[in-house]
Amino acid sequence: MKHALLMICLLASTSVAQQLSKEDRAAAVKIDRIVNDQMSANKIPGVSLAVLRKGKIVLLKSYGLANVEHQIPVKPETIFQSGSIGKQFTAAAVMILVQENKLSLDDHLSKYFPDVPPTWNDITIYHLLTHTSGLGDYPSEIDLKHDYTEDEFFAAFKKAPLDFEPGASWNYSNVGYVTLGILIGKITGKFYGDFVKERLFRPLDMTTAQVISEADIVPNRAAGYRLVKGELKNQQWVSPSTNSTADGSYYVSILDLAKWDAGLYTDKPLTQSSRQSIWSSVKLRDGTTKDYGFGWHLGNYHGHKLAFHGGAWQGFKSFIIRFLDTDLTIIFLANSWETRDFKLARRLASAYYPAFALPAVKTIEDPEPNTTSYIRRAMMENKKLAQDLKPFSLPVAIIHSSELIDRKTENNLRVYRYLLTDIGHSAICTVKLKADDTVASIEFSEL
Q: What is the pLDDT of residue 4?
């Protein structure tokens, strides 16, 4: 089977390479090495990848297995779960309603849901799209293995206090996008996923894109995986309702995402004005900006203007990077939770633009993965730390066992150093723990 998979990859590479420019041929060789290195290092079963120029595919790659149990190889038609890159589809659906004057970005949520708490009265559609509403992540009472109606979800959201006053700050909010899906249903009278399929997927010929459904027969569906003590396991089960919300619960293939990228160069389904809005940084109440639009991270890195986003859900990772100044797009889908998505995306970008290359920092095997998990949780729950991270634009969730650089004891404190990587920066994170496992200090130094 290994020899058969190698032959499939070689044949695919050869057939595409004959049509490639010199630059793309050189990048293709680097990309093969980069993907194979990470698949081996992190035990990733399969990856699907596309490189596009101005919406046209120049490189289409399939690596490894879509289903380990049945030894099914990845192919361009393989269906993965989107994770949070699906927020782009939810945001696009909202913008279609804006284009049709069925809502305004300045509308308050209370216009459509009069019974929201008084603290929500200033939340606008714009705030929901840009993660500036003050809504956080799912409340602790939400059990991902329990089925909820939209009304039950919304009732739970309304009980949770806001993290900040609407428009005052930025905090990534899955709840905000779930709420947008409920709003789409309120305005259109249909399930948000049906509206997205009808008004976005069908016009773009994204024939296999849809909201996740375990009940449906889905040809070419990949399985998602995770590692437990180094052993490959199937993804953890969640209920159908928590797997169909508007914060990123979509099935997509790499071919679907290629069509999505191509559609973003046209005025249908999103007009030029809408596209300009989704790629504009949000302005906070104090006049400062955050490099996030509507379902897209934004930024200028190494002389290039980027729009990008990652996704992580149920044993799947995904990433899309659009170089807005050169019309180059790189997309990948992987079926392992262990995929270091930002690190892989950065290395793929370096295949075309060497300035994105990762620093030469060696990592070591992590003998205390539970401690690393504890540190990651502590950092994600620390609201002040999220503010301190702003200069780095580094997602805290990427602190992981495979990124440990050093561990030692110093002045009766346990010291751990990790490499942090986002799409344009790298930093060293030094965490010091006391004897009782409480965090003594966290420091960052950019590389």
A: 38
